[in-house]
Amino acid sequence: MTMVAEFAATAKAPAPTGPILAADGVPLDKKLAQVTRRARINAFLLVAPLLAFLLVFFVAPIFLMLRLSTGDTVVSTELPRTAAALRSWDQKALPDEPVYAALVADLKDARERQATGKIGAQINYVYSGARSLFVSAGRSAGSIDAPYKQALIDKDPLWGDPTLWVMIKTTSQTTSPINYLNAVDRTLGPTGAVAQVPEDQRIHVTIFIRTLWLSFIVTLLCMAFGYPVAYLLSHLPLRTSNLLMICVLLPFWTALLVRITAWIALLQNDGVVLSTAVALGIVDPANRPQLVYNLIGTLVAMVHVLMPSMILPLYSVMKTIPPTYVRAARSLGATSFTAFWRVYFPQTLPGIAAGGLLVFILSVGYYITPALLGGQSGVLISNFIELHVSKTLNWGLAAALAGLLLVAILILYWLFNKIVGIDRLKMG
Fold first, then answer.
1. End-to-end Cα spacing for the chain
2. Closest by alpha carbon to 157, among 131, 133, 132?
3. Is the separation of the CB atoms in 250 and 242 below 8 Å?
4. Lowest-confidence range among 4-18, 26-40, 240-254, 351-365?
5. Which of 59-63, 79-83, 254-258 has the lowest mean pLDDT?
6. What is the dihedral of CA 116, 121, 127, 131, to 10 degrees?
7. Domains of the chain
């Protein structure tokens, strides 16, 4: 009875008040917060090198590219008086005398710094003939007297072209849409309104459409040719499939330039393909089709190069599909085609989506294959970006083209996610 009474007294005793303490005397909730914070810091330190790498070599170049595409500081730095005077210009008529006076003063200073050529080159990207115009005006700026407007127009009638002054004002701004307008074959007219460039200069939109269309065709062909190969690899005995997998991976072990050179040797007029077709009587020897240095050569080589990028995701997904599913469908009365189409094929859709997305993104940015095999009809937007970077030195337009390409890919990626779902992608 005594033990029962003691137990009852203990049970009736009030519960201890105050926070629950850890072994070291710290309240348990604070201790838990400290441990969680320490775990987060350790996790961040583990990924910090990768995060720094992405920021320096991926995010920063994209940011600099987008900044370069929206304008340059050459005109605003070298023509500060002119840029300030043009801010209040309404673009309805030629600028007034003070703007011309500011231009002459800026040209005198630029002449001393030997910067007139740099100014003219920058404006020449958007207005043909500006380089020689500014160099000539800079040389004679010291001898030009008021009224400056009439003096400059008498020296060269281009100084009386409103479009030139629109371009000077546009390029002198911190941010300007002119590079993106040029990237879609548009420009600014005499009043600052957006207008199409002359028909013989409209090329960028055509190249953009060709790039997206060719990438789509390459993706479909890789799916059509890669699916049977992946199916075969996933159903053959392991020893045989490993041998065939080596053949699939062999292009990865061969330099891209070697593969493209091999296709040139195969597809040229006297190459293996056409010579064999002529010997078999399939092709008229006097009218051999052109298979290289055009869109056909680019398409063939890109499909060959990107085929492993489609086969590997498909194979990795097909390998995980139990063969008993198809056998069960056939045992229940389904034909071979019905069992494949309604049971097996839907399970391979994640691999098709992953391979298609990978091949399409690689195709959009392809450069070496179109450059060597494309000729004039097979070049893609990446070749034009390289052209403006290395030859015309119009880095602003090149950055705008790259920015539009990036936006197009992001939009297509968003549509892909809405239609298919990124969460459904599988690599096995």
1. 69
2. 133
3. no
4. 4-18
5. 254-258
6. 50
7. 75-173 (no CATH), 204-424 (1.10.3720.10)
3-state secondary structure of 196: strand
The residues that bridge with 194 in the sheet, in sequence order, are 188
CB 407 within 8 A of CB 63: no
- Span 292-344, pLDDT tens digits: 888 888 899 999 999 999 999 999 999 989 989 989 999 988 898 999 999 99
Sequential DSSP letters for 273-304: HHHHHHHTTSS-TTS----SSSHHHHHHHHHH
Tally of CA atoms within 13 A in the half-sphere of 316 that contains its CB: 15
Q: Concatenate the DSSP letters of all residues of 197-225 into one string.
A: PPGGG--HHHHHHHHHHHHHHHHHHHHHH
Tokens standing for 18? 């105050």
- Contact call for residues 348 and 423 (beta carbons, < 8 A): no
Q: Report pLDDT digits (tens) over 104-143.
A: 999 999 999 999 999 999 999 999 899 999 999 999 888 8
DSSP 15: P
Residue 1 has pLDDT above 50, yes or no: no
| Cis-peptide, bond into residue 14, ω within 30° of zero | no
Cα separation, 107 vs 257, in Å, equals: 49
Q: Quick one: residue 15, left, alpha or beta (phi over 0 = left, psi -120 to 50 = alpha)?
A: beta
